[in-house]
Specification:
By secondary structure, this protein is α/β, with parallel strands linked by helices. Helix 1 packs across helix 2 and helix 3 packs antiparallel against helix 4.
Length: about 220
């Protein structure tokens, strides 16, 4: 049985520690350069359709659907096969937000840090590894389809008297707070397109702490959390 910690820090990846909007922009540019804007747009249609079905973004799954459709249109299969390499070999470490690793180091002074991310079981772990976040949290990585629905499992994996959740999505923070209540401190990072959506911000209750960028975490004293 793992000895419960006083505080465990749960940290999201996309647009919290890593600028996923820039990753998407790079993928979009690569698709358009390789296959043209019209063909590339069909990939994004496949991605959104799969997101609606699965509840998370599956870039590789969407690529499989895109490949099947483009192959029927007569596109070279070998060119499409190279697209998976672009995603798998992407330099995610270059897309960490400034101060992301320093923020994790700061949090570790007050308790264990745990990556808690939504996503699939292939691409998302690869992203965490290649970005350096896996090593930065000493392999404490949890990835679920809907992480806000997995709180009992999270507590079993990393028991603690108190938790701190750092995320760019108010929806996630509100859902976790509704279950854990005062046992959870919510930290909203105003980065990425979700965090800047004024309608989404207005739809949810205020969080405990709001910061403008992940690097600002080093200025927060969690010793009394």
């Amino acid at each position: 049985m793992t000895q419960p910690a006083d505080t465990v820090f749960l940290i999201d990846v996309d647009n919290t520690l890593l600028d996923n909007d820039r990753v998407v922009d790079d993928l979009r540019a690569h698709l358009e350069e390789s296959f043209g804007a019209e063909s590339a747009s069909r990939y994004w249609v496949a991605l959104e359709a799969l997101r609606s079905e699965l509840g998370y973004v599956d870039y590789l799954g969407a690529l499989q659907r895109y490949r099947a459709e483009e192959s029927r249109r007569g596109m070279s299969d070998s060119r499409l096969l190279l697209m998976s390499g672009f995603l798998i070999d992407y330099p995610f470490a270059d897309r960490l937000y400034p101060g992301a690793l320093a923020a994790l180091q700061h949090l570790r002074r007050h308790g264990p840090t745990v990556i808690l991310s939504d996503g699939d079981v292939v691409f998302q772990p690869r992203k965490v590894q290649r970005s350096g976040l896996w090593d930065a949290t000493e392999g404490r990585v949890l990835i679920y389809v809907h992480k806000e629905q997995m709180l009992d499992t999270i507590a079993q994996c990393h028991p603690a008297a108190h938790y701190v959740m750092v995320d760019d999505k108010l929806r996630i923070l509100a859902a976790m707070k509704a279950i854990w209540g005062p046992r959870l401190t919510t930290v909203f990072v105003r980065q990425g397109h979700y965090a800047l959506d004024t309608q989404a911000i207005a739809a949810y209750a205020p969080v405990d702490i709001t910061i403008e960028r992940i690097g600002d975490l080093v200025n927060i004293d969690f010793s009394s959390t």
